[in-house]
From TrEMBL:
Organism of derivation: Dietzia natronolimnaea
Biased composition (Acidic residues): 220-231
Classification of source organism: Bacteria, Bacillati, Actinomycetota, Actinomycetes, Mycobacteriales
GO cellular component: cytoplasm
Pfam family, one: AFG1_ATPase
Entry keyword set: ATP-binding, Cell cycle, Cell division, Nucleotide-binding
Chain residue ranges for the region called Disordered: 208-231
Protein name in the entry: Cell division protein ZapE
A biological process from GO: cell division
A GO MF term: ATP binding
Length: 338
């Protein structure tokens, strides 16, 4: 019998939360040298240079020259770098390269994973656990809630004061986060504080996942989808609506554990999503599937029809486009990591 994601409820012990803050395995071997800048996009080469310089500064902060009487001077405040650009231009590649270059201890996680860590540990313990790190790398830095904005603003202020450097990626510049979203004024107040932490680096270019690739594949029939799932060891098969309902019962930071060990995700009867809350949860799932390189197959409607035109016209447009880009890339995968 084929397994279902709706039957999985991951549990992550609190004492393992910081330890598991590492890059996805698909980025284990990336480096600055393996990032190939597009010659038509000079900002990419400039971004590599800026990220190398930032990583080198973190290393230098962690190996200060000894002062008088052999004492090491106190670490200076941490630095910050912020990679802004469209989806599919290699920002996560560069962020992971920063992580690999910097000395231990260090941490890497998505924005939603970071907020979960703080919520699970409590603010003070989270600061204590992270304050000795050389760098905190935050991927997908997009703020959907004023409370999370203030929480992360406080956290980064505490950590940078303690000497932790911060590297982040997003599709929106720090001073523009929250535009077109709920409670924009609340966002702006806190975002102004955070934007001063970062040096913003623009990374331009087309989405590499769509270069010279065909459009979304046609959906499979339900029968063919079931046969596909049954033929692939480790595959899962879920009704799309039921899976969306299950995601609402889990904190998004657990979605990576939800798909742990899965080799293919088969979604039956895909339809356009009815509201933003469900859509944003699916964005996170798409990111975790992409991080793990898990192929996606579906029946129902095409994967590029999941997010409605109304959604794409709103404040979360870039998130939905990124998720669509990643789902389409996964629909072309033949095997995990393909």
């Amino acid at each position: 019998m084929v397994s279902r994601l709706v039957d999985v409820t991951p549990v992550v012990p609190a004492d393992q939360l910081v330890a598991q803050m590492v890059p996805p395995s698909m980025f284990d071997d990336v480096s600055f040298d393996s990032y190939i800048p597009d010659p038509a996009e000079p900002s990419q080469e400039a971004a590599v240079t800026a990220c190398r310089r930032f990583a080198e500064s973190v290393v230098a902060r962690r190996t200060p020259k000894k002062g008088l009487f052999g004492r090491r001077p106190k670490s200076a405040e941490g630095a910050g770098i912020y990679l802004d650009g469209g989806f599919g231009v290699g920002k996560t590649h560069l962020l992971t390269s920063i992580y690999h270059t910097c000395p231990e201890p260090k941490a890497f996680g998505t924005f939603v994973e970071l907020t979960h860590v703080v919520g699970a540990l409590g603010f003070n313990r989270a600061v204590e656990e992270l304050s000795g790190h050389s760098v905190l790398c935050i991927d997908e830095f997009e703020l959907d809630d004023p409370g999370d904005t203030m929480l992360v603003s406080r956290l980064l202020a505490e950590l940078t004061t303690a000497g932790v450097s911060v590297a982040a990626t997003s599709n929106t510049l720090p001073e523009q986060l929250g535009e077109g979203r709920f409670a924009a004024k609340d966002f702006m107040r806190e975002i102004r504080k955070m934007s001063g932490i970062f040096e913003s680096i623009r990374v331009d270019g087309p989405d590499y996942r769509h270069r010279n690739l065909p459009p979304a594949p046609d959906p499979m029939s339900d029968e063919a989808l079931e046969s596909d799932a049954e033929a692939e060891p480790g595959a899962t098969l879920d009704d799309f609506d039921a899976l969306c309902g299950h995601l609402a019962t889990l904190h998004p930071s657990k979605y990576n554990r939800l798909v742990d060990g899965v080799t293919r995700v088969c979604l039956r009867d895909v339809v356009p999503l009815p509201d933003q809350a469900i859509a944003l949860r699916l964005v996170v799932l798409a990111d975790r599937l992409y991080d793990a390189g898990i192929p996606v197959r579906n029946s129902g409607q095409k994967l590029d029809a999941i997010f409605t035109e109304e959604m794409l016209a709103g404040g979360y447009r870039k998130k939905y486009l990124r998720a669509t880009s990643r789902l389409l890339a996964l629909s072309r995968f033949e095997t995990v990591g393909g």
